[in-house]
Design goal:
The complex is a heterodimer of chains A (about 200) and B (about 160). Chain A is α+β, with helices and mostly antiparallel strands and about 200 residues long. Chain A contains six helices and eight strands. In chain A, strands 1, 2, 3, 4, 5, 6, 7 and 8 form an eight-stranded antiparallel sheet that branches. The model of chain A has no long low-confidence stretch (mean pLDDT about 85). Chain B has a single domain, classed as 60s Ribosomal Protein L30, Chain: A, CATH 3.30.1330.200. The chains are: A alpha+beta (about 200), B alpha+beta (about 160).
Chain lengths: ~200, ~160
């Protein structure tokens, strides 16, 4: 993958997460702020699962199938402490574990993140990117990652976008992976005036 | 005792002693091959059932169809006898059951592909902890062939 392609993915990530943060912030009554410009990294297949910092750490993974003019997959992965913070912000409740209420709150949050991310890209490209109902897993980071990568049948490298938010003094970190099918990625790029990506 | 971590798509082996471990098996399948006389153990961490033409440079252990023969070759290289090899499996879960991307989940497809290949090579499966909706960690003790499988919030399983 070349520099231009990575830059373009970063730009897409920037636009997508910007919109997603705004949508989330509105849902939380304006209490969520994006701290830094999202950082996109290209990772070889083998390292992708290690990236979260510990394969055995529990994470929350949200996984979505994209259909429409662009087919593919998208996922958000949050470390457990960030997931707890998000549940607290959404429900106003402190939970010792991720229970049913927490799960549905996270699912809803994933839904909003993904939908607004994809909407932003849809508007920009005039292509339809429609998300499925999100799947949710709370499990070992390694297991969540590899299930996402296998579900999307990622063969070589994967671009992971790291985002950092802050809400009421709490730092929240998340990882987003946007995996359009190869030929559809070219479609998005062409709509943005880039050929041969 | 040395512990070797086997990442996605990798194959590792040990002789006489040592632990081969794979952490975070989701839809992937962890496979162990063991010859208890030669005390040779091989572990693979299979990602998808079938290799694809657009992924030429992939390590053999990434796919079941290339991984199982490569594991057998590795066991033989370390002095194992093919007819004594026994296999154990863990993983092949479906962490996102509500997505229903395919009629058969990737995890199930992986398990079926691995079983088919093992049977083709005449290698019996003597233990397994597969399917379900949770991730697993698999540890393979090469001195005695025991495999322990752990998962978050569950009792460890010995297979």
């Amino acid at each position: 993958m070349n520099e231009v392609r990575l830059d373009f993915l970063k730009e897409l990530a920037n636009i997508g997460t910007g919109h997603a943060t705004t949508a989330l912030s509105q849902m939380l009554g304006g209490r969520l702020f994006q701290l830094v410009v999202p950082d996109a990294q290209m990772l070889p297949f083998r390292e992708a699962a290690d990236y979260m910092g510990g394969l055995e750490h529990t994470v929350v993974g949200i996984f979505v199938v994209i259909s429409g003019d662009v087919a593919g997959h998208m996922a958000c992965v949050y470390p457990l402490n960030s997931a707890y913070a998000l549940i607290r912000l959404l429900t106003g409740e402190e939970t010792p574990e991720i229970d049913e209420l927490g799960r549905s709150a996270l699912q809803e949050l994933g839904n909003i993140m993904v939908t607004s991310f994809l909407n932003a890209l849809s508007k920009m490209t005039d292509l339809l990117l429609a998300p499925s109902v999100p799947g949710l897993a709370v499990d070992m980071a390694g297991a969540v990652w590899e299930s996402i990568l296998a579900g999307a049948e990622v063969a070589g490298e994967v671009t992971v976008i790291r985002t950092r938010f802050s809400a009421e003094g709490e730092a929240i970190e998340g990882h987003i992976i946007f995996l359009p099918n190869e030929e559809d990625f070219g479609k998005i790029a062409r709509r943005c005036g880039l050929e041969g990506l | 005792m040395s512990e070797i971590f086997v990442n996605m798509g990798e194959i590792s082996s040990a002789k006489d002693h040592g632990i081969l471990t794979t952490v975070g098996l989701g839809s992937c399948v962890g496979v162990t091959l063991y010859d208890d006389r030669a005390k040779v153990g091989v572990m693979g961490h299979i990602f998808l059932p079938r290799s694809r033409p657009n992924d030429q440079g992939a390590p053999p252990g990434k796919y079941a169809d290339t991984g199982i023969p490569a594991m057998i070759a590795e066991a033989i290289r370390l002095g194992a006898s093919k007819i004594r090899l026994q296999a154990k499996l863990a993983g092949g879960a479906n962490l996102f059951p509500n997505l229903n991307m395919k009629s058969l989940s990737i995890g199930q497809q992986n398990v079926e592909a691995v079983k088919e290949l093992l049977s083709k090579h005449g290698i019996p499966i003597v233990g397994q902890d597969v399917a379900g909706n949770h991730g697993r960690k698999m540890r393979f003790f090469v001195e005695n062939g025991l495999v322990s499988v752990t998962a978050i919030g569950r009792e460890p399983v010995e297979i």
